[in-house]
Write a structure and sequence with these properties.
Elements lengths: L42 E2 L5 E4 L18 E2 L7 E20 L4 E9 L6 E5 L16 E23 L6 E11 L12 E4 L6 E4 L2 E2 L2 E6 L10 H6 L4 E3 L7 H10 L3 E6 L22 H16 L5 E8 L1 H4 L6 H25 L5 E5 L5 H7 L6 E4 L7 H8 L5 E5 L21 H16 L5 E9 L5 H6 L9 H10 L11 E6 L5 E2 L3 E9 L7 E8 L5 E6 L2 E2 L3 E6 L5 E10 L5 E11 L4 E2 L5 E4 L18 E2 L13 E19 L5 E9 L6 E6 L6 E21 L6 E9 L27 E7 L7 E4 L16 E2 L3 E2 L7 E2 L5 E19 L4 E9 L6 E6 L6 E2 L2 E18 L6 E13 L11 E4 L5 H15 L9 E5 L2 E4 L8 E5 L7 E5 L18 E10 L3 E3 L8 E6 L2 E3 L12 E3 L2 E7 L5 E5 L2 E6 L4 E5 L2 E5 L8 E3 L12 E4 L5 E2 L3 E4 L10 E6 L1 E2 L14 E5 ...
Parallel strand pairs: 12-13, 12-19, 13-14, 14-15, 15-16, 16-17, 17-18, 18-19, 21-28, 48-49, 49-51, 50-52, 51-53, 52-53, 53-55, 54-56, 55-57, 55-58, 56-58, 57-59, 58-60, 59-61, 60-62, 61-64, 70-71, 71-74, 72-74, 73-75, 74-76, 75-77, 76-78, 77-79, 78-80, 79-81, 80-82, 81-83, 82-84, 83-85, 84-86, 85-87, ...
Antiparallel strand pairs: 1-8, 2-4, 3-8, 4-7, 4-8, 5-6, 5-7, 9-10, 10-11, 20-22, 22-26, 23-24, 23-27, 25-26, 27-28, 29-36, 30-32, 31-36, 32-35, 32-36, 33-34, 33-35, 37-47, 38-42, 39-47, 40-41, 42-45, 42-46, 42-47, 43-44, 43-46, 62-63, 65-68, 66-67, 67-69, 88-90, 91-93, 93-96, 94-95, 94-97, ...
Helix pairs in contact: 3-5, 5-6, 8-10
Keywords: Membrane, Transmembrane, Transmembrane helix
InterPro entries: BG_Antigen-Binding_Lectin (IPR051941), FA58C (IPR000421), Galactose-bd-like_sf (IPR008979), GH (IPR017853), Ig-like_fold (IPR013783), SACTE_4363 (IPR059186)
GO biological process, one term: carbohydrate metabolic process
């Protein structure tokens, strides 16, 4: 499962689903209907107009679309409900027709309104609508209402107060008839976008249709637009606005267009008034050529994007008419404004010449700019303005100005910081969240009140910044939804209007008197949640008015709800205190107040004193006035350049003992190098501090206490081209009454010793930041946020206004974060977790004293956010600094977390027995060594999704304290017999910080056979597919979603016990089997439990409904739970454990093979050791890197079991598992890649075989299958001792462009499949419809097969094809292929698409529980969405039953016409709410649905095998002498006399088929040496079919070929060297036709032919070549074979 991002991206996307939708009322299918044309008189006013509703508002449009096959439906069981339509303008309403579905109102009114707020009732219904007479639709009920008196209105609403039946209210169509206000007809000109009409009737047309701009200004990084677009669409937004357009816009435009969103594409012009480039151009003279350069840029990008489907209109400049007042005054200002607007006109003319298909506007900050545009910019098509608190005055100004063109609100929303009064601390009073939400409502009403004049709005701001401005004006602060988000959604009619909403903080108090820096003070807040959700709180601080740093940092505080004790900042000034209230659903309420902090350093004796300066752009007195919004600045020349040698001094008025100076620098106008000097007389100066190479921000300068009356800052070098400027200079005295240190690290115990003491291998990975006493500082922002344990906090360097006063807020290069480890340590690397604002280039520096720095590593060319591991030669250091050289975005730089690696010398706990990738940890080891090993492995594996690292980590019995983070291809297991033999106490095991806390790609890892006591009581296992948790005792709670509630797509737990709760709120699906829990809460779509004991709860609250499994509260799908009392016949996965004491000795290891059980619940070990048998490791062939298929097969043939140690094994021959009772077990996600074009592994039709813990990965050379279980067309009874597959994973693509016909085929009867993920890759390498090709993910030909935990995704035909009888599936999860190129490529047999789960028409009995199929087609278009007729297809027979199934279109990407067999609601909504079917067939309506067609005949779903299982054709190599064979007797392959199955036993050999000897076989020699070669010729085969050549008696596949057009074949075959001397039979078999023939061959000992002059033939050289090349495929065949008729 994966993302919408391009294949080169490592990012994975999941549709954002906030809650489970209600079950739609499933009515009868209605045919296409044509609505009646209106008779002469009133005209239809409502069709196609904007509609909204009290619930399910996103579907309201379906009630006014003129289509009687679509409808709006409210939520169920809630009164009242309403649906309204906006007619677009005032109209005379005469008649209203309501076409109800059966779920109709029995009591309702029709209401009208002119403004959408005040409503008047014009009709009251006497009762429920009657069935429409004569209609062919039995679900159509109609009320046709003619109003007694026509009403004048713009809005018409149907208000239901009582339902006629259960469910909700449902309308096929609402039609309003009357007469609209007459306007001159508008004839579209054919332009893509155009402004048409006249005063009072202006319209924006897009493709000839009216378009009202419902927009937001866009804030997130364009490169990651897809991460935020779904929430934007849910608001009802159809337009976004940007301030600049360049190459980086392409991705944003693509994502917008793909989601039906248009863009107001901006061009930034200096000086601006918001984000941008700043500066003060001269528009009159333009001596510097600014206008020419700007015009060239505008025309360049207009040309580039003029045909882009995302572009709505062009917006030239932002707030520059107002902004010019910061550059000029008087007559010069007026001249510049005229020149600027004239230049805008020049740009508009140029744009129109290039692109006549899109309008042009220009935005400014006040309506006072419009007269300049009227005078100088006639080429503009419309006006635009940013207006917040004054938005109510915009329309009046427009009317008074008689501008002759409409206008657009390009920014609007809550009252701004610049529009409100200050509080007692001089801080602007921020509106409450409720007031801000009302601001958005008011802004939109200012648009809708003036149709035909205001064309819409792009409200401010869809941004994610979590700083002072982000809290004030963003609707998505920090990625969390505010009340403003929902207010806009309600205004725009978006689906999110009905979503779970933000908490509301109703009151907040802080101290009204000053608090001492570093002391504590009390904050109180009261909050409530409109949805009744539990609320958690956070207290943050911002120093914007104290330090100039706008960032929010988490305060140090105690307390929860109600009252908080907060530690005051250490810097004096007015600080903003924020209380955040979260509801756990991604919503947050935020309120703020200010607190005055006085400095703990003493008394600021400079406050209000006399100040002088060498020069002043701003008065010197403002540098000591105590107001952080005023400043002193040195003089600037006409080009805004300052000088280096400036000074500023303050006369304290008396002598004081002073020890500290603080300078609050303004932006880039800071002192890079300067001295602090003191004097007692103002003449003789002493330097007390020399500040060098400083960065912007607040500087605290400490020095030895000295007596002074005068204090001076003497500038040496500026930090930019501007002058020096600071908001405040403070001088501190301890008492306020008139009247430094060494370079070595005293904490380093051995600074001259070896860098890394000890012996052994260097392990670089243990995170030193975890140690006590570690602190962090930064150039800006709170460095501590990068080393704390809070997953929500991050260090952010912030932005600076460049130049000061420009309104241009951008990040700075050169920012740094520095960690003090508290003492010297051997440092060998670090890992920053970059937020979206990452550093492209950065240096790693180290120091022993915090002053002298050495560069340890340089990182260059980083491309994106996420973790980045850098290792270097160990060096001893106490201080580590990460210094950003070049930013990767226009913003600052930001880190979620920073890890610093310690180098340690460790004797690695590996064994010669199990190889270098198996670590066996002992509790006697140094805990830091164990942590280092784990951290080092995790650093390598955390994001190595398609690499070849494989690790197995065992824990010998005992107790461990360890943060055991588990990355890709890492398996950790207890080495005891029982899970309780090993206990690990520590932090989270699996989270998703590598992927921005999105866990939907946390695949391929495991934990098994141990106990876990989570730190803090709750641990994380935030995984998706192929990440089993087995035999684990959790002493506490388990969270299955990530630390920031990111999406996850799991998952599987078996044979485990959780003593506390399990929470899985963002998990899309999960299967838990034969386990026990305290309580399980949460889940999105499909949660299945079998054999699980414990409670299921709706949520976290004490009073939330709960039920004891297998019952569940409510009725499916509310919640979406399937609970079975028992699983069925099941045997747990085999596991390796230490049965003795010495891990280096094979005899001291054993594999436990649990017994088959049925009808049980809970764990196998709840009453003691898991029942089963133990097999000593001496009975296993241990496979290590470098082993060949020949060696593995030789060991299997010799009676050995097989243990694969971690590694990637490229096998050129099929692994043949033939002996009954064989155990094949993989450690550390051992991976098998079949490179020879054959089957990866073939498991014979034999009793009791166990295969577990393996990943099969398709090679670029196509295979018929990766794993085949059983023999083709052979049915034997294995019910008493079935084949069991556990944790078997199959992958096609991702690492390479793998190819396979059918990933997994199960032929053997009674097989138990216990957790399989069969995945055709949708991301990674080698991804594409014609690249990683595979038609079938999981095929069952055997009878009585059971599948528990069946995950199958993205295959190109049937993901699951089930042809065997009496199959059982418990839990199925699927995504259809993302990359279907078009509908035609995916249709078959008159069916649209291929079902995810297909039970063939020949099957009479089948049952399944808990099934889900999803679509996310990324290659289609909005106009031509890919459609699949149904997610499931099964025979329409009483013996086939499906329980609890769903389909869902992720974000509307694709259409499911039905769920199963034509039953179930159509699903295509962008809201990602599934369509459910509780049971099929429904006992109440068993005949519902259609009989789907049979699956097309395709031989590839039943590939050829040998009944006894072929052996390897290469020379046999004996197993290691230390692993002597211990074969067990083979079980009988004859069906038992009591076999109840209706199928007779099949013949056991090819020679016994009805077509025996239909093929003529000729050999080039009648005698051949063992190891020799011969030519085999055959005729009588089907043209083009694959041909197999076998050697009997014990069947061995010699080679394969393909029949020519005449049905003949000629191949060269090699006789294996291990072939016994004597008479054998060569059998030639047609794989497709089954036709066979044979010839006798005499095999003699090697050398006998040479001695006797026997038959050699002319094939010796060919034999050598064939031996080297392996199995020969003479003629390559097409992958995509045709479907047989």
């Amino acid at each position: 499962m994966t993302a919408l991002a391009p294949p080169v991206s490592r990012r994975r996307w999941r549709a954002a689903v906030a809650s489970i939708g209600v079950l739609s009322l499933v009515g009868l299918t209605v045919g296409a209907a044509v609505l009646p044309a209106a008779a002469d008189g009133p005209v239809l006013l409502s069709q196609g107009k904007t509609a909204a509703a009290s619930s399910n508002s996103s579907a309201a449009a379906a009630a006014v679309d003129g289509n009687l096959q679509s409808r709006w439906e409210s939520v169920h069981d809630v009164d009242p409900q309403w649906l309204q339509v906006d007619l677009g303008k005032a109209s005379t309403v005469e008649r209203v027709t309501l076409d109800w579905e059966r779920a109709r109102a029995s009591a309702y009114t029709v209401q009208v309104s002119s403004d959408g707020s005040a409503w008047t009732t014009v009709y009251t219904a006497p009762g429920a609508a009657p069935l429409l007479a004569g209609s062919t639709n039995p679900e159509l009920y109609e009320d046709d209402v003619t109003l007694p008196t026509p009403a004048t209105a713009r809005y018409v609403r149907v208000h239901g107060t009582e339902r006629a039946i259960g469910y909700g209210y449902s309308l096929w169509e609402l039609r309003v008839y009357g007469e609209a206000m007459t306007t001159p007809p508008v004839e579209p000109s054919g332009k893509t976008v155009e402004v048409v009409g006249g005063n009072g009737s202006w319209q924006l047309l897009v493709d000839g249709e009216p378009y009202v701009v419902k927009g937001m200004t866009w804030g997130p990084d364009a490169a990651h637009a897809e991460d935020y677009i779904a929430d934007l669409k849910a608001m009802g937004v159809n337009t976004i606005r940007t301030w600049g357009t360049d190459a980086s816009s392409a991705h944003l435009f693509d994502v917008a267009a793909a989601n039906g969103i248009r863009v107001v594409a901006g061009f930034w012009l200096q000086p601006g008034g918001g984000p941008g480039s700043g500066g003060c151009p001269d528009f009159v003279d333009d001596a510097e050529g600014y206008k020419a350069a700007a015009l060239a840029d505008i025309t360049k990008w207009t040309t580039h994007y003029k045909d882009d489907p995302a572009v709505l209109l062009w917006d030239v400049g932002n707030e520059s008419v107002l902004g010019l007042q910061n550059c000029y005054s008087g007559a010069k200002l007026e001249a510049q404004r005229d020149a600027y607007t004239s230049f805008v006109n020049e740009a508009a003319v140029a744009i129109h010449a290039i692109d006549p298909n899109h309008p042009v506007t220009s935005t400014d900050a006040y309506v006072g700019a419009w007269p300049y545009y009227k005078k100088n910019a006639p080429a503009l098509d419309l006006l635009a303005v940013n207006s917040y608190g004054a938005i109510g005055d915009v329309h009046a100004a427009w009317e008074a100005g008689d501008y002759g063109k409409p206008y657009l609100i390009t920014e609007g929303g809550p009252t701004g910081e610049w529009e409100v009064p200050d509080d007692a601390n001089g801080v602007p009073v921020e509106p409450t969240d409720v007031q801000k939400a009302a601001g958005y409502t008011t802004a939109w009403k200012a648009v809708t009140d003036h149709p035909g004049q205001a064309l819409g709005a792009t409200l401010f701001h869809y941004g994610i910044e979590k700083d002072m401005g982000g809290v004030w004006l963003n609707v998505l602060t920090g990625g969390e939804k505010r009340l403003g988000y929902f207010a806009v959604a309600k205004a725009y009619g978006g689906s999110a209007a009905d979503d779970n909403s933000s908490p509301v903080i109703s009151s907040m108090t802080v101290p009204t008197s000053s608090v001492l820096a570093g002391s504590t003070f009390e904050v109180s807040a009261a909050a409530s949640d409109p949805d009744g959700d539990a609320i958690t709180y956070e207290v943050d601080l911002s120093g914007n008015y104290a330090t100039g740093d706008k960032a929010l940092t988490k305060a140090t505080y105690s307390g929860t709800a109600g009252t908080f004790t907060v530690t005051a900042p250490t810097t004096a000034g007015a600080w903003k205190v924020y209380v955040l209230a979260r509801d756990g659903h991604g919503n947050v309420g935020i309120e703020s107040q200010s607190v005055k902090v006085v400095d703990g350093a003493g008394v600021n004796v400079a406050l209000g004193k006399t100040a002088t300066a060498s020069s002043s752009q701003d008065p010197a007195a403002q540098g000591v006035d105590g107001v952080m919004t005023t400043k002193w600045g040195s003089a600037l020349d006409g080009s805004w350049n300052g000088k280096d040698d400036e000074w500023y001094q303050v006369d304290l008025g008396a002598r004081y003992a002073v020890h500290q100076v603080k300078l609050f620098w303004e932006g880039a106008a800071y002192g890079k190098d300067y001295d602090v000097q003191v004097s007692t007389d103002g003449t003789t100066w002493t330097t007390v501090a020399q500040q060098r190479d400083e960065a912007a921000g607040t500087h605290t300068v400490d020095f030895d206490e000295t007596t002074a009356r005068y204090v001076r800052m003497k500038g040496i070098h500026r930090g930019s081209t501007f002058g020096y400027s600071f908001y405040e200079l403070q001088v501190f005295s301890a008492t306020g009454e008139p009247v430094g240190t060494g370079p070595t690290d005293p904490t380093d115990p051995d600074p001259t010793g070896p860098v890394v003491p000890g012996t052994g291998d260097l392990v670089c990975g243990r995170d030193l930041v975890r140690d006590a006493g570690v602190t962090a500082t930064a150039s800006h922002g709170n460095g501590g946020d990068a080393i704390d344990t809070n997953v929500w906090s991050r260090w952010d360097s912030g932005v600076a206004e460049t130049p000061p006063g420009s309104g241009n807020w951008v990040g700075r290069d050169g920012e740094w974060i520095q960690v003090d480890l508290g003492k010297g340590a051997p440092v060998c690397g670090l890992k920053p977790y970059w937020e979206g604002a990452f550093a492209k280039d950065y240096d790693v520096k180290i120091s022993t004293d915090g002053s002298t720095w050495t560069t340890a590593a340089r990182v260059r060319g980083l491309a994106e956010k996420g973790p980045e591991v850098t290792r270097f030669e160990p060096v001893r250091a106490r201080y580590v600094r990460l210094e950003a050289v070049t930013r990767g975005t226009p913003y600052g730089v930001s880190l979620w977390d920073l890890e610093i690696f310690e180098g340690r010398k460790i004797e690695l706990p590996t064994t010669a027995l199990l190889g270098s990738r198996v670590l066996v940890l002992d509790p006697s080891m140094d805990a830091k060594d164990i942590q280092a090993i784990f951290d080092s492995v995790f650093a390598d594996q955390e994001e190595d999704q398609f690499g070849e690292g494989r690790w197995q980590i065992f824990f010998k019995p005992g107790d461990y304290t360890l943060d055991a983070r588990v990355g890709f291809y890492t398996a950790m297991s207890g080495a005891g017999l029982d899970p309780t033999d090993v206990d690990i106490t520590g932090g989270d095991w699996v989270d998703a910080e590598w992927f921005d806390m999105n866990a939907t790609q946390n695949f391929w890892r495991s934990a098994e056979n141990l106990s876990y006591t989570p730190t803090g009581g709750t641990g994380h296992w935030a995984t998706s597919q192929a990440a089993p948790l087995r035999r684990v005792q959790v002493n506490g709670n388990l969270q299955l979603d990530s630390g920031r509630y990111g999406w996850s797509s799991g998952g599987f737990i078996a044979d485990s016990n959780v003593t506390g709760y399990v929470k899985s709120f963002t998990q899309q699906q999960w299967y838990a089997r034969d386990s026990s829990v305290g309580t399980w809460a949460g889940g999105v779509w499909n949660f299945v439990y079998s054999g699980v004991t414990g409670d299921v709860s709706k949520g976290d609250g004490a009073g939330d409904p709960r039920a004891t499994l297998p019952a569940s509260w409510g009725a499916y799908p509310t919640p979406p739970i399937t609970a079975l009392e028992h699983t069925g016949a099941i045997a747990e996965k085999p596991y390796l454990y230490l049965s003795g004491d010495d891990e280096d000795v094979a005899a001291d290891w054993s594999v436990r093979v649990p017994v088959l059980r049925d009808g049980t619940a809970g764990t196998t070990w709840k009453n003691g050791t898991t029942p089963g048998t133990s097999i000593p490791l001496t009975d296993f062939f241990v496979v290590k890197q470098g082993a060949t298929a020949t060696q593995v097969n030789a060991a299997l043939a010799a009676g050995k079991n097989v243990l694969f140690t971690p590694g990637v094994y490229r096998m050129d021959k099929t692994i043949q598992v033939t002996r009954p009772g064989t155990v094949v077990l993989g450690l550390g996600l051992s991976t098998i890649i079949p490179t020879g074009g054959g089957i990866g592994m073939l498991v014979a039709d034999a009793d009791g075989i166990r295969v577990a813990g393996l990943l099969f990965d398709a090679a670029v050379t196509e295979s018929p299958a990766l794993l085949v279980v059983g023999d083709k067309d052979v049915h034997r009874d294995h019910a008493a001792d079935p084949i069991v597959l556990s944790d078997v994973f199959l992958r096609v693509g991702g690492a390479v462009a793998g190819k396979v016909d059918a990933a997994m085929v199960v032929d053997a009867d009674d097989t138990i499949v216990d957790h399989v993920w069969s995945w055709r890759g949708d991301h990674g390498a080698g991804i594409g419809w014609d690249a990683n090709t595979s038609d079938y993910g999981f095929v069952v030909n055997g009878d009585d097969v059971s599948a528990y935990g069946l995950f199958v995704e993205h295959f190109q035909r049937y993901n699951v094809l089930w042809k065997g009888e009496r199959g059982r599936t418990v839990f199925f999860q699927n995504e259809l292929p993302y990359d279907v190129p078009d509908q035609a490529a995916w249709n078959h047999d008159g069916v649209k698409g291929w079902a995810a789960y297909k039970v063939d028409s020949s099957v009479k009995h089948h049952e399944a529980w808990g099934l889900g199929a999803y679509s996310n087609f990324t290659s289609d278009t909005e106009e031509e969405e890919i459609t699949v007729d149904g997610g499931f297809e099964v025979p329409k027979t009483a013996g086939v039953t499906l329980h609890h199934l769903l389909v869902v279109s992720l974000g509307g990407e694709g259409i499911f016409e039905h769920v199963v067999n034509g039953v179930g609601a159509r699903n295509e909504s962008a809201s990602t709410v599934p369509s459910y079917v509780e049971r099929y067939p429904d006992p109440a309506d068993p005949d519902a649905g259609i009989e789907p067609p049979a699956a097309p005949v395709d031989p590839r779903t039943n590939p050829a095998t040998s009944p006894a299982g072929p052996t390897d054709p290469e020379p046999t190599q004996s197993p290691s002498p230390t692993q002597s064979p211990s074969p067990t007797p083979s079980g009988s392959t004859t069906p038992k006399p009591t076999d109840p199955k209706p199928t007779d036993p099949k013949p056991t050999g090819p020679t016994a088929t009805p077509d025996d000897d239909a093929v003529d076989v000729t050999l080039s020699a009648g005698r051949v040496e063992a190891g020799g070669t011969l030519t085999v010729e055959a005729t009588g085969l089907e043209p083009g079919e694959r041909v197999e050549v076998w050697l009997h008696s014990t069947p061995v596949l010699l080679t394969q070929g393909e029949a020519d057009e005449d049905g003949s074949v000629e191949v060269v075959a090699t006789v294996p060297t291990e072939t016994s001397v004597g008479t054998h039979t060569v059998v030639v078999r047609g794989a497709g036709s089954g036709a066979e023939g044979s010839a006798t061959l005499q095999v003699v000992a090697a050398g006998d032919l040479a001695a006797t002059g026997g038959d050699v033939g002319g094939v010796a050289l060919a034999g050598v070549i064939t031996l080297l090349a392996g199995v020969v495929l003479l003629v390559a065949r097409s992958r995509r074979g045709g479907v047989a008729a």
